[in-house]
Amino acid sequence: MYRKRTGPRPLTLEPVSYKQSHLRVAQRRGRAADAVGGCIDCGGNASQWAYNHASEREQSGWTVGKNEHLYKVTWSPDPDDYDPRCVPCHKAFDLGRSDA
Ligand SMILES: [Zn+2]
Predict the structure, then answer these.
(1) Rounded Cα gap, residues 84 and 82, in angstroms
(2) Is the per-residue pLDDT at 100 higher than 50?
(3) Is residue 12 in some structural domain?
């Protein structure tokens, strides 16, 4: 079967790596700073895409952060599961979750 491919490849929501998930959000939705309405919490200048922790396809794993520390992260392969947030709101949002 030959199907001609036109335009961008269809979005698949198979599991992706943590890093891939962030690249994917950027590819699909652009920069958080350009999101309409700005930060979803305060309306200020968004600078990050924050995973909403409500995905049916949630994945979790470990990533290496600053100081080579391993820490647990959760993410989603679906770019629609992310909201634009400013840094303070993103931190507050993550701290407010019991599974952080
Ligand atoms: Zn904010």
Answers:
(1) 7
(2) no
(3) no
Asked whether the whole model's pTM tops 0.85, one would answer: no
10 domain residue, yes or no? no
Distance, CA 2 to ligand 1 centroid (Å)? Answer: 47
| b/e per residue 13-45 (b: at least 16 CB within 10 A) | eeebeeeebbebbeeeeeebeebeebbbbeeee
5 lies in some domain:
no
Average pLDDT of the chain?
A: 89
Q: What is the pLDDT of residue 3?
A: 63
Number of structural domains the chain divides into:
1
Residue 8 counted as domain residue:
no
Report the separation in Å between the CA atom of 1 and the middle of ligand 1, taken as the mean of its atom positions.
49
Tell me the residue range of the domain where 31 lies. 18-95
Q: How confident is the model at residue 94 (pLDDT cuts 50, 70, 90)?
A: confident
Taking the centre of ligand 1 as the mean of its atom positions, its distance from the CA of residue 29, in whole angstroms, is 18
